[in-house]
């Protein structure tokens, strides 16, 4: 079964053969067509030379991009925290402790309730052009509850991350080291078979660098690859730890010193920025310009979770990154597609070169620039995930 998408006004391919820039190197073809065959991109080129296919879709001059890659989300949870958000908007500070509220609700939920929540959010994302989703555990915080969370995440998400060391649960109050040991031993053993990644929230009020290192190195020994919640609330040691451990990504990067920026710029560790969090917590936005100018690779993701950012909108992240973080529209769209793929060490998504997974996002707009130019407007016209039409 093949499909040809014709009459594409602007095709953003991010073709790695053409686009070599570490961020902002969108490869754009005008008046293009794209052929999908067996779940993959089979051909791209000028619309006038498009080959025949079993089925055809007229893009009507619209822009077509690779599906968004949301490389950071926490979807296995129950309940919500709207009151906490309202209190923040009246001056309360965001603190890691709020996570425990969601832990209580999540522990009390049935498997099917958690499943329904993950499914709902993954569908909400797909309708907005997200075709690759990473999903973390981290609201269970017992061996059985974390194992249940990674299993449920694996049913719906493309990438699963074990985040047993999210925060110290109430039963371990005052014993972060003891809980980190559990997260690095029995809990890890129960979760590793269902996950690809291991993550730690390394921050004041959560886990210090030694505890984070213990969990991450144990995770690596168990066959997982590291990524890290780093420098979200303070200029701590987490970004440098991420680089030292050759983590795929250091996420948040809100409070950075020169040594952090230098470390990221001279490494393969992607700086994943999550502007929805700063929007929803009234923190300063991360300095994307400083990272890009230093030569770091930048990704954008939502961090969709009920506490620090209950948004699944990659378009919103792009708009904020362009308006308030001084990224160009090209840099922001690259970061939300190819950048996310790099943060997940995936070469099959985030671009539309022949051979890529057919994750195709047709915008109801003539150019990718409209994602930032028309903030808050739903611009997703049609979506294919792995060659299967999921919207439009
Ligand atoms: O990435 N910072 C740690 N974890 C999440 C927030 C989780 C929550 O507040 O429930 C984050 O921001
Ligand atoms: Fe997070």
From TrEMBL:
One GO MF term attached to the UniProt entry: iron ion binding
Location(s), subcellular: Cytoplasm
Cofactor(s) essential for the protein: Zn(2+); Fe(3+)
GO (cellular component) term, any one: cytoplasm
Free-text remark on how the cofactor is bound: Binds 1 zinc or iron ion per subunit.
InterPro entries assigned to the protein according to its UniProt record, in alphabetical order: Amidohydro_3, HutI, Metal-dep_hydrolase_composite, Metal_Hydrolase
Pfam assignment, any one: Amidohydro_3
Residues bound to 4-imidazolone-5-propanoate: 81, 139, 166, 232, 308
Keyword field contains DNA-binding: no
Keyword Transcription part of the UniProt annotation: no
Keywords: Cytoplasm, Histidine metabolism, Hydrolase, Iron, Metal-binding, Zinc
Matches recorded under SUPFAM superfamilies: Composite domain of metallo-dependent hydrolases, Metallo-dependent hydrolases
Gene Ontology biological-process entries: L-histidine catabolic process to glutamate and formamide; L-histidine catabolic process to glutamate and formate
Family under the similarity heading: Belongs to the metallo-dependent hydrolases superfamily. HutI family.
HAMAP family with a match to the protein in the record: HutI
Function: Catalyzes the hydrolytic cleavage of the carbon-nitrogen bond in imidazolone-5-propanoate to yield N-formimidoyl-L-glutamate. It is the third step in the universal histidine degradation pathway.
Protein name: Imidazolonepropionase
Organism expressing this protein natively: Actinomadura luteofluorescens
């Amino acid at each position: 079964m093949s499909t040809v998408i014709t009459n594409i006004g602007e095709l953003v391919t991010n073709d790695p053969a053409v686009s070599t820039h570490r961020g902002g190197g969108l490869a754009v073809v005008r008046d293009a067509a794209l052929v999908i065959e067996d779940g993959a991109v089979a051909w791209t080129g000028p619309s006038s030379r498009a080959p025949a296919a079993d089925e055809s879709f007229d893009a009507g001059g619209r822009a077509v991009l690779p599906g968004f890659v949301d490389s950071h989300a926490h979807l296995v949870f129950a309940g919500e925290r709207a009151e906490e958000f309202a209190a923040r908007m009246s001056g309360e500070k965001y603190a890691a402790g709020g996570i425990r509220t969601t832990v209580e609700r999540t522990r009390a939920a049935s498997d099917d309730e958690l499943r329904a929540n993950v499914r709902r959010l993954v569908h909400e994302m797909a309708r907005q052009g997200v075709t690759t989703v990473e999903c973390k555990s981290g609201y269970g915080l017992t061996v059985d509850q974390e194992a249940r969370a990674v299993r449920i995440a694996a049913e719906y998400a493309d990438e699963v991350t074990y985040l047993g060391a999210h925060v110290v649960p109430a039963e371990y109050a005052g014993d972060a080291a003891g809980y980190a040991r559990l997260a690095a031993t029995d809990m890890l053993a129960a979760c590793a078979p269902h996950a690809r990644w291991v993550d730690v929230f390394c921050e004041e009020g959560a886990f210090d660098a030694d505890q984070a290192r213990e969990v991450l190195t144990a995770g690596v020994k168990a066959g997982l690859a590291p990524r890290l919640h780093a420098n979200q609330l303070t200029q701590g040691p987490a970004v440098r730890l991420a680089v030292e451990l050759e983590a795929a990504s250091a996420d948040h990067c809100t409070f950075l010193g020169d040594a952090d920026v230098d470390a990221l710029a001279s490494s393969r560790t992607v700086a994943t920025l999550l502007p929805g969090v700063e929007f929803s917590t009234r923190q300063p936005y991360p300095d994307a310009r400083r990272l890009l100018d230093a030569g770091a690779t930048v990704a954008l993701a939502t961090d969709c979770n009920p506490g620090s950012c209950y948004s699944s909108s990659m378009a919103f992240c792009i708009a904020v990154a362009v308006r308030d973080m001084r990224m160009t529209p090209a840099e922001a769209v690259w970061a939300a597609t190819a950048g996310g793929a790099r943060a997940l060490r995936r070469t099959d998504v985030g671009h539309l070169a022949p051979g890529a997974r057919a994750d195709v996002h047709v915008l109801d707009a003539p150019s990718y620039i409209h994602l930032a130019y028309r903030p808050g407007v739903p611009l997703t016209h049609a979506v294919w995930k792995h060659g299967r039409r999921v919207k439009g």
